[in-house]
Specification:
The protein is an alpha/beta fold. It is about 30% helix and about 20% strand.
């Protein structure tokens, strides 16, 4: 019995030829690899999920695989493919524990894996691979996965938003060179490269694109929206050139460091509170140094708010003078804001909106780019700064945050300290928004509803609006 006679699916219509290619990838003869550099919200993951569903129903007794950087993102991929397939347990068996979808009538399976351990991808018998956000995946994972298709000769589809010029860039350029050569010589390429900017998706409004163009540094707009490869793909370009000293050995439930002579320094503080299971982080920056220089930090978690505020008081006493500081009071209410007012130094609360957070992140980016601040080599903070990224909602409105499954407590506390530095230091005239409460209604960041549209693909986007999609 053929796959078409057994199972039918009704996927959303593709919005462009490029998305159609992803949806039909495994029905394209002669192609061995497809590489796609996609802008945020192009619809890469939707295209890949339809392609995966089509693969499942088209080939009995085959095993397919979807790989993402971390478990949470692999789970999202599984949800996407599941939504394309019939909602019938007798036709589609979903095993969330083993992260796989099985079609018993066809004996066809799709496995969903993360690439944190490349060796786990080794083996044999995979009919085809889908790599989602593979710019965040190690090259070793690609190599390991490719060996599993040696016998089957299956297709590998690799989609991602660019992240600098790493191995994903190299493989995309190799595919582009082969494709260009084949076209010039009238041959069929075995590898294809596509650039799929956000503007190719009609559901990403022009207003959202223009807002991102205004609000983001040009290099990040080109990377995240135009899908261009730029030299440094991190949000905080140049921050590693602002690191001083040897690697600090700070671990444990309470992680703390102060520079020699800190008891004579005039500092500003930045605070990000732990709301549930996250970590509370304090930074102290010497405002008289040129460039401004971090002279202390502290990190801990699982403490009542009253104790956290007391620890902030003890932290501040280690410096000559605390001239000011900001804490993120978003989500913690007025209670903790009232507690900090009893401290012997001035700390103000900021309620962050997407707009005010974006402004503050961009000012911190600028400070790093002009090397107007220096920070110690604290490995945890370095990892957070490296991983910090631009995320977008279902219609393309951007925001800054840690990747799914990771934290940004040290980054957010540093941004708070930088905001205070902008208020109290003349080393670089960067002013900050004190609070998002003063924004006009015209700038409402919560206006993220999907346009009312009865088309299948618009409904599909509406269904996914609350998902943590990294497209």
């Amino acid at each position: 019995m053929s796959a078409a006679q057994t199972i039918t699916i009704d996927p959303p219509a593709p919005h462009s030829k490029k998305q159609r290619m992803l949806m039909q990838a495994f029905q394209t003869p002669g192609i061995r690899e497809i590489w796609v550099a996609a802008g945020t919200k192009f619809g890469k993951s939707i295209g890949l999920s339809v392609g995966g569903a089509n693969a499942l129903i088209s080939r009995p007794r085959a095993t397919w695989r979807w790989t993402a950087p971390i478990y949470d993102q692999a789970e999202i991929g599984m949800q996407y493919v599941q939504r394309i397939l019939p909602n019938d347990d007798s036709i589609v068996n979903v095993n969330k524990g083993k992260m796989r979808i099985h079609l018993p009538d066809l004996d066809a399976t799709m496995k969903f894996a993360h690439a944190q351990d490349p060796n786990s991808l080794e083996g044999f018998g995979i009919a085809g691979d889908i790599f989602d956000e593979c710019a965040k995946i190690k090259r070793e994972a690609y190599d390991a996965a490719k060996t599993t298709r040696t016998v089957t000769g299956g297709l590998g589809v690799y989609g991602s938003t660019p992240l600098g010029k790493n191995w994903f860039y190299v493989k995309c350029m190799e595919a582009k060179d082969e494709m260009d050569w084949a076209i010039r010589n009238g041959k069929v390429p075995t590898r294809i490269f596509l650039t799929a900017p956000s503007t190719d998706n009609p559901l990403v409004s022009q207003e959202a694109v223009e807002e991102a163009r205004r609000d983001m540094p040009d290099r990040l707009f080109r990377q995240y929206y135009l899908a261009e490869f730029i030299d440094d793909g991190t949000v905080f370009a140049n921050f590693r050139n602002c690191i001083f000293g040897e690697e600090l050995d700070v671990y444990g439930e309470v992680q703390k460091w102060t520079a020699p002579g800190s008891d004579e320094k005039r500092v500003v503080l930045g605070i990000d509170w732990a709301k549930t299971i996250d970590w509370t982080v304090f930074w102290a920056i010497d405002i008289d140094a040129r460039p401004a220089r971090v002279v202390g930090f502290q990190r801990f978690h699982r403490r009542p708010y009253i104790e956290q505020v007391k620890m902030l008081g003890w932290f501040g006493k280690q410096f000559g003078e605390v001239v000011g500081g900001y804490h993120d009071k978003t989500g913690v209410g007025v209670a903790i804001d009232e507690l900090v007012h009893h401290l012997p130094f001035p700390i103000e609360g900021i309620t962050l909106t997407n707009r005010s957070k974006t402004d503050m992140v961009n000012r911190t980016i600028t400070r790093f780019e002009v090397r107007d601040v220096a920070m110690p080599w604290w490995p945890l903070a370095v990892r957070e700064f490296d991983a910090f990224e631009v995320r977008t909602n279902a219609i393309g409105t951007m925001s800054y945050s840690a990747p799914s499954g990771q934290t940004d407590d040290a980054v957010m506390a540093f941004i708070m300290a930088e905001a205070a530095l902008g208020e109290h230091s003349s080393s670089l005239e960067i002013r900050t928004i004190r609070s998002g409460d003063d924004r006009s209604k015209d700038d409402d960041d919560d206006a993220s509803e999907i346009p009312e549209d009865d088309s299948a693909i618009a409904q599909f986007y509406r269904d996914l609006a609350d998902d943590a999609d990294d497209d």
